[in-house]
Amino acid sequence: MQFLICKTYFKDSLLTTYARSLSGYDPAYLLPGLPEAEFAKTFDEATEISSGRFNSVFPYLWKIKKFLNIGSEKRLKEASSRLRQFAKNIIKEKKQELSKNSSLESVDLLSRFLSSGHSDEDFVTDIVISFILAGRDTTSAALTWYFWLLSQNQEVEKEVLREIKEKSESPVYEEVKDMVYTHASLCESMRLYPPVPIDSKVAKHDDVLPDGTVVKKGARVCYHPYAMGRLEVLWGSDWEKFRPERWLESATDGANKNGKWSFVGRDPYTYPVFQAGPRICLGKDMAFLQMKRVVAGILRRFKVVPVAEDGFEPVLVAYLTSKMKDGFPVRFEERSD
Ligand code: HEM
């Protein structure tokens, strides 16, 4: 059986997981028939058109289309309205459930929001949509590139598998937290292929950067995690290598006590994969938790083998997130051991 990893499996499984942890709602996209995911399709359409605005050669074109309500902007408006309606239905159902059973208050994020007095429907709708947007494509992009890198670095896969096998079949939070090598390998993968490859900010006031660069009010300033992850000055002359060990302290420096690695993080200004400062990603820990559980769940039972021709080199396409051009076709081989 083949899966286009980034196009179907990860996105839909993550959407299912997020929908459940966010709202308790299960869109049932992981039924064996992998049913057509209407919500996911609409979401993709909306994000693709929105990101197209950034890359537009004539930036004012989309504004004209929006004003006239034609073409892609018309489709975006319709998609956004369908998404909002979908989110509103979930909220309505959740409110009804809560009114019948208040013990649901602590079960999922949406229940918590509603129970803590956030009753404004538009506000809660924005929360539901922005959490799915922030958490779905980022994590699926990270995992697509991660499985590609693992397939090219067997010794890393072996070490990740060794760590996974020390844990229970469905590792609980404490166990996932202890998967230090897997954590390091995910950080290393996102160094080379950051899910948000480039990000920009608009200056609210005239400003001067620490190096003296003058930034005028309204100017767009970009930071570039993809380029920064490949800088020799930050990562050394072997920056090209996928080497999780650069995030770990080894036995020789005394930290690998009892055969355990110890993780050495980098500051977020050197590694801005989750951004840095007061607006740093709020879902970072949740993202690692989800990714480690998915990695453990898949690798324990399957080997993920690319079905591409020998010499295949994936091409990164940067929309809002780092997609692999045409997806990543793979075969899942069941492990015999
Ligand atoms: C590997 C996965 C992820 C990566 C690489 C990532 C990266 C980022 C980045 C770069 C930003 C800054 C965007 C900006 O302000 O321009 C951000 C913001 C944010 N992320 Fe994530 N994210 C990930 C997963 C998640 C998940 C799973 C959630 C929640 C379920 C989440 C929730 C958020 C939220 C709410 C913000 C906005 C924070 C604010 O503006 O104060 N993220 N993320």
Automatic annotation (TrEMBL):
Official protein name in the record: CYTOCHROME P450
> Which species does the entry assign this protein to?
Salix koriyanagi
Q: Which keywords are on file for this protein? A: Heme, Iron, Metal-binding, Monooxygenase, Oxidoreductase
* GO terms for MF: heme binding; iron ion binding; monooxygenase activity; oxidoreductase activity, acting on paired donors, with incorporation or reduction of molecular oxygen
The cofactor(s) it depends on are: heme
Residues reported in the UniProt entry to bind heme: C281
| Classification via SUPFAM superfamilies | Cytochrome P450
Q: Which InterPro entries match?
A: Cyt_P450, Cyt_P450_E_grp-I, Cyt_P450_sf
- Please report which protein family the annotation says this sequence is part of: Belongs to the cytochrome P450 family.
